[in-house]
Amino acid sequence: MDILIPSREAAAFIGVSPATLENWRVRGEGPAFIKTPGKTGKISYAEADILEWRAQRRFSSTAQAAAADA
Fold it and tell me: In the chain, which residues have pLDDT < 50?
């Protein structure tokens, strides 16, 4: 079973502000998230999805990072 992390805690875990994590959700740039039904549904993140996203954002040079952001 996945460990679900509320949005605010997920942002702290990643090392960004909750607003940055929200912006990433809008642009589809952050880790996959889970939203409960309804317009004001709660957002959470599976720990496994955060770890997978972090692994994909791991680079050994700034050139690799720049290429990934392009």
Answer: none
